[in-house]
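Task 17 of the worksheet. Students: predict the tertiary structure of the chain below and write it out as structure tokens. Keep your answer in the requested format; marks are given for formatting as well as content.
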Amino acid sequence: MSRSADHTVVIPTIGRESLRATLHALAGPGTGADALREIIVVDDRPAPGAPLPLPVSGGPEIRVIRSGGRGPAAARNAGWRAAGTEWVAFLDDDVVPEPDWPARLAADLADLPPEVGGSQGRVTVPLPWDRRPTDWERNTAALAGADWITADMAYRRGVLAALGGFDERFRRAYREDADLALRAMDAGHGLVLGARRLTHPVRPAGFWASVKAQAGNADDILMWRVHGPSWRDRAGEGRGLLRRHLLTTTAGLLAAAAPVALGGRRGAAAALAAGAVWGALTARFAYERIRPGPRTPDEVARMAVTSAAIPPAAVWHRVRGLIAHRSARPWGGPWVVLFDRDDTLIRDVPYNGDPARVEPMPGARRALDRLRRHGVRIGVVSNQSGVAKGRITADDVRRVNARVERLLGPVDVWEFCPHEGGDGCGCRKPRPGLIERAARRLGARPSDCAVIGDIGGDVEAAAAAGARGILVPTGRTRPVEIAQAAETAPTLRAAVDLVLGGRRRR
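Model answer:
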């Protein structure tokens, strides 16, 4: 008898109306939806907007969480970390699962051996039957043959936790799924193709959609930095046209610059020759895109204009990626940083319950923003014995924490200990409970975390939990604490340097 695998479905969304059809297909009668523990919809809009298009009733439980508009990789991470099942299946918000998709998902996941870490569904992209597909439609149709795409991809939650989930440096819906798959296979986890099926319709696209898509060239640089020059072959990707785009762009720049740089007949001749190269390459590119298409006047005009704009856009984003990811390293720990609150992120005001008295420490916002840009999850772990003493309430602590977030930006997890030293709890630092709870809520191990604080209790708690501890001394830090700390940094900025650089320093 096969063993049913406990699973959750996670769907990131930016509020598209198509979400309603996706959810309806999962919840309809006869779908086997009773096999789903839960559906988690991750609202990735930067700010709350119109209500999401959710079914009124019926079907499995749907839970909505927010991820703050940080992109699909971060949204998926928020979804699987909120799940409590052995498997997590990811869907896009514009796919339409076949009527029996939930039942087939359960069958795909049942009795998979432990060495299998992921299962992919089968994707169909419908194309028009009465004409040739447009350039945009052909590009979308490539999803049907792509490997490990998160239009329909399930992973064991333990695999996601061990790998740190999706790399949040991929801010677009591009390459983040291939990156995770390569890391999973590198770690020895098998990926298999299941029998479940869904349809991925072609979304409407604007005139400049193909030019905007060139932003993916920066993501390709990140893939190259992390996975090496053979990443395209391993991910089943073609070589692309970047070299030709570079030649086209160079010819165009020479044609424009030669008359000024050389002057006279030499400049005119050089400009004419470079312009001829640019024109030939651009015409060839446009022809290759027009020939397999419907060849309507609108499509021909679109291909002609965008074929001239794509090469410089591709080169620009390539250069941007080289700069942005010049020191990129593989996604991994510690990619959770837990901070003490008082005298580390904000000035210490004893037993403060007044949000108006919150004052950030110098450089705190810049340090946190830098971690966020690198995809690092941020938490705060803080002793608040004033609650036990009756000086403040737990609600006061939460109001102060909310003010900290307004000043310093979003925090992924807050944990505080309301006890006094003599209460015998396991959470008051230097005990490890706060760190262990925060790590568990973020789907990480304590060993994947770095803890930054200003007193010995902070780094002692880190050591007790198996995390990395970095002391940033202040006026109240005792010399013996500094001497005993495994790592110290003079400022928050220097502590973040240690975390991102991976170095350990006294």
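Marker's comment: The chain has three domains: 7-204, 206-329, 336-501. The first strand starts at residue 7 and ends at 13.
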